Amino acid sequence: MITKGIKQLCADAEAVVETWTVDEAHARLDDDEVVFVDIRDIRELWREGAIPSAVHAPRGMLEFWVDPESPYARDVFQSGKRFMFFCAGGLRSALAAQAIQEMGLAPVCHMEGGYSAWKNKGYPTEAKEKK
Q: What DSSP state is assigned to residue 75?
């Protein structure tokens, strides 16, 4: 039997990670000091589209891509910029931002409501095609 469910895990993450509303995130879309990081599975991007200029970093590889000592490290995460994580609905991104914050990467935040809320507001999206 588990002792802590996903609701509690997400609530714990929300308590320690900065959360932006969709409107706050949209206002920073063109800010060169903010990197939007889409942690959804690639199939979600193909199916639903993506936020223009967002970096795709699948949740399963995120910590490996952030760690500069990892053989999978990505330069974007060594930029010193602010990282705003998002997923489909705002749950996975809260957990991801918490994990990355615990690794020492700062500043980080996540977007409440995720990509679904972004699309519902009519904010810009783009199609992602299979490569």
A: G
Number of Cβ within a 10 Å radius of residue 9: 15
Nearest to 19 by CA among 117, 103, 104: 117
Which own/partner pairs from 38-47 qualify as long-range (CB within 8 Å, at least 24 positions apart)?
A: 38/86, 38/87, 38/115, 39/85, 39/86, 39/87, 39/92, 39/93, 39/96, 40/87, 40/88, 40/92, 40/115, 42/128, 44/88, 44/115, 45/128, 46/128, 46/129, 46/130
In tens digits, the chain (131 residues) has pLDDT values of: 999 999 999 999 999 999 999 999 999 999 999 999 999 999 999 999 999 999 999 999 999 999 999 999 999 999 999 999 999 999 999 999 999 999 999 999 999 999 999 999 999 999 998 87
> Which candidate, 84, 79, 82, places its Cα nearest to that of 96?
84
